[in-house]
Design a protein that fits this description.
The complex is a heterotrimer of chains A (about 250), B (about 230) and C (about 220). Chain A is α/β, with parallel strands linked by helices and about 250 residues long. Chain A is built from nine helices and ten strands. In chain A, the strands form two sheets. Chain A has a six-stranded mixed beta sheet, sandwiched between helices. Chain A has a four-stranded antiparallel beta sheet with strand order 2-1-4-5, with helices on one face. Chain A starts with a strand and ends with a helix. By secondary structure, chain B is an all-alpha fold. By secondary structure, chain C is mainly α. Chain C has one domain: MetI-like fold, CATH 1.10.3720. The longest helix of chain C is centred in the N-terminal third of the chain and has 45 residues. Chain C is flat. Classes of the chains: A alpha/beta (about 250), B mainly alpha (about 230), C mainly alpha (about 220). The interface between A and C is medium-sized, with 30 and 23 residues.
């Protein structure tokens, strides 16, 4: 059974149909990368998975539990799904350590000492052991994003969703965040990543999903998608991206 | 306790007096705001562009007139000035007008400082004098920036005209107490609620007019905040 | 000069008892107003539509009318409905109801200043709406609101002088009382003004220290 199953998700904002029936599966330990032009519903799709945005139609299943069921305890489910935002969304009034600790203490109800130990481990894992006392405003963008990854990791999630985690960063800070993500993938974390970083997609993804206009245009392993895409639109998009970023 | 119908009759028959009170309240508001505008602007200019004793004196004036309760200021000037033959009204205008000036100086100071210094340099580079720069570059911008704060100040001053009730000037609030007294306090709730309603209309009516004015004067890229959360 | 000092010394006990009442009025009203104001702000922002409208109307009504009128409604008007207060209680009720409306607006401003993404991040961690308010919104707005709150305290000290108009024996009332007995009006009001001014300056200074003390880098104070 797949860890995550997304079935026929629809979402409309006003008159605009953002998602027109999206379905895919993610196996345990897989990294799935979602690519596609801006404004094609990739972020909305991620938010529908943990219902930060309510889908109009369709189902999401996590590990055999229906996330979209009206009877689902959504807060308990969200605690099992890590989410990394484009603009970090760290809590301004809390230090790095407290940012990571908040969910452990308030949602998972870990004893304070244990939560502190856990939070320190995760900060060390993202290479920020020495920054635990810093407030978000005292950290660079790359460091903030690594804290936010630690915040997600500390909850022991079954799956982490990344919503363009490097798009808000200066170019020289992107590397440190990608490096953390590469390690996570190697360690077998299940991840769904929306990104424009084709190098990352190529080397880390088990599966690439190309989305446009609210539907999945094509999906498959990176070797196939990058070298011999089946749909002309995919090739066109990949060419444009490689022109813009000078890679692939 | 009086019935509802009688209360309406009492208010109806007292309407001419109440309207006369409204007129005095509005006139007082205009006087206080006017005195405050002139004194507040001078204080702000002294604080921003002045130096030495001028700047220092402006700040002391501001602190004192903001730090002492309006009612105490009013009593102070009323008792002090009427002794030397100055009228009750003039004392009130000085006390509450200068107090408004102390608050308005803050608004203008903020507005003056918000004009980027680069523009002052640019004006001087064109060969404009200091006065010309203030007149043609600083003022047109400062006035627009000051409007939201000024709208707030209008509401404060309008409501605080009710203070002069305490020194016996007959404005809206005092007309209200007269009606209450004439009817032996049987309709005090209705009368004071009605007075409150009149203030409400004046406050929000005035604010609406000022926000329309702000919209008319608005310049792209310099939109003033529509709503102020400050005390008013 | 020594005549003036004697005069002040003679009436100092009465002035100080007035000052005591002024401080009590202010302190009680600011804290009651804090509780009511914070609740109003939370209702105004997060509650269901009809409750939001109710909170909004209340705030608009209070902000649109003079405090004197409000005090008169409470003290002279409410007895008509069988609700009677002593002057002191009426002043507390009036000042609290008044201050709550202003404090609610300060809190609302602070609530709006908390970045929306953080609320989403809290929900993504699995926190409930109440937990999010308690652990993410409140700690931030309490700090954000301190400068406005300091202003409000200063306003209340000054506005509490209006309680003298409904016979509360606070500082202004006592000054008037002494003036009417001694006819040395100017002098006594100068002393009263000096007392108010010192109180206001001291309170402003102390609260500015508190603000610096609880400051967190990056958590900016909106407005002045």
């Amino acid at each position: 059974m797949a860890l995550l199953e997304v079935k026929d998700i629809h979402k409309r904002y006003g008159t605009e149909q953002v998602l027109k029936g999206v379905s895919f599966q993610v196996e345990r330990g897989q990294t799935v990368v979602v690519i596609g032009p801006s404004g094609t519903g990739k972020s909305t799709l991620l938010r529908c998975i943990n219902r930060l945005t309510e889908p109009d139609r369709g189902q999401v299943w996590l590990d055999g539990v229906e996330v979209t069921s009206p009877r689902a305890d959504i807060n308990r489910i969200r605690a099992q799904i890590g989410f990394v935002f484009q603009d970090f969304n760290l809590f301004t009034h809390l230090t790095a350590l407290d940012n990571v600790r908040l969910g452990l203490v308030r949602v998972k109800r870990l004893p304070r000492e244990q939560a502190t130990r856990r939070a320190r481990e995760e900060l060390a894992r993202v290479g920020l052991a020495d920054k635990e006392k810093a407030y978000p405003a005292q950290l660079s963008g790359g460091q903030q994003q690594r804290v936010s990854i630690a915040r997600a990791l500390a909850m022991d999630p079954k799956l982490i969703l990344f919503d363009e985690p490097t798009s808000a960063l200066d170019p020289e800070l992107i590397g440190e965040v990608l490096q953390v993500m590469v390690e996570l993938a190697r360690e077998g974390m299940t991840m769904v990543v929306v990104t424009h970083e084709m190098g990352f997609a190529r080397s880390v993804a088990d599966e690439i999903i190309f989305m446009e206009g609210g539907v999945i245009v094509e999906h498959g392993p990176p070797e196939r998608l990058f070298t011999s895409p089946q749909v002309p639109r995919t090739a066109e998009f990949l060419n444009k991206i490689s022109e813009l970023y000078g890679e692939t | 306790m009086g019935g509802k119908i009688e209360a309406l009759e009492v208010l109806w028959s007292a309407l001419p007096r109440l309207l006369a009170g409204v007129r005095v309240t509005v006139e007082l508001t205009a006087l206080f705001l006017g005195v405050g505008l002139v004194s507040g602007f001078l204080v702000a200019v002294a604080q921003v562009y002045g130096r030495g004793p001028l700047r220092w004196g402006a700040t002391v004036f501001e602190q004192v007139f903001r730090g002492v309760p309006a009612l105490v200021l009013l009593f102070l000037l009323y008792f002090g000035l009427t002794e030397v033959g100055i009228s009750r009204l003039a004392a009130a205008v000085l006390a509450l007008g200068l107090r408004s000036g102390a608050y308005q100086s803050q608004i203008f100071r903020g507005a003056l400082l918000a004009v980027p210094t680069g523009q002052l340099l640019a004006a001087r580079a064109l060969g404009m004098t200091g006065l010309q720069t203030i007149r043609h570059v600083v003022l047109p911008q400062a006035v627009r920036l000051a409007l939201p704060g000024w709208s707030n100040e209008y509401a404060i001053v309008l409501k605080d005209t009710s203070y002069v009730f305490a020194i016996g000037l007959v404005e809206l609030m005092r007309e209200g107490t007269y009606i209450v007294a004439r009817t032996f306090g049987r309709y005090s709730l209705e009368v004071y609620l009605f007075v409150a309603l009149v203030y409400l209309v004046l406050v929000y009516g005035g604010n609406l007019a000022l926000s329309l004015l702000a919209r008319r004067l608005a310049i792209p890229g310099q939109e003033a905040r529509a709503e102020s959360l400050e005390r008013m | 000069m020594s005549d003036f000092l004697n005069f002040v010394a003679e009436h100092l006990p009465l002035l100080l008892s007035g000052l005591g009442a002024t401080v009590t009025l202010t302190v009680v009203a600011i804290w009651l107003g804090f509780g009511l104001g914070l609740s109003l702000a939370l209702v105004r922002t997060y509650a269901i539509a009809p409750l939001r409208a109710l909170a909004r109307t209340y705030i608009a009504l209070v902000r649109g009318t003079p405090l004197i009128t409000q005090l008169f409604v409470v003290y002279h008007g409410l007895p008509q409905l069988g609700i009677t207060f002593t002057p002191f209680t009426a002043a507390i009720v009036g000042l609290t109801l008044n201050s709550a409306a202003y404090q609610a607006e300060y809190f609302r401003g602070a609530i709006l200043a908390v970045r929306r993404g953080q609320l989403m991040a809290a929900r993504a961690l699995g926190m409930t709406k109440l937990q999010t308010i308690r652990h993410v919104v409140l700690p931030q707005i309490i700090r954000l609101v301190i400068p406005s709150w300091a202003n409000e305290l200063v306003y209340l000290i000054k506005y509490s002088s209006l309680a003298s108009l409904i016979q509360v024996r606070e500082l202004t009332f006592q000054a008037r009382h002494i003036a009417s007995e001694t006819y040395r009006t100017m002098e006594i009001f100068l002393v009263a003004a000096a007392i108010y001014l010192s109180l206001v300056l001291v309170v402003s200074y102390v609260l500015r220290r508190v603000e610096l003390w609880v400051r967190i880098p990056g958590l900016g104070a909106p407005g002045r």
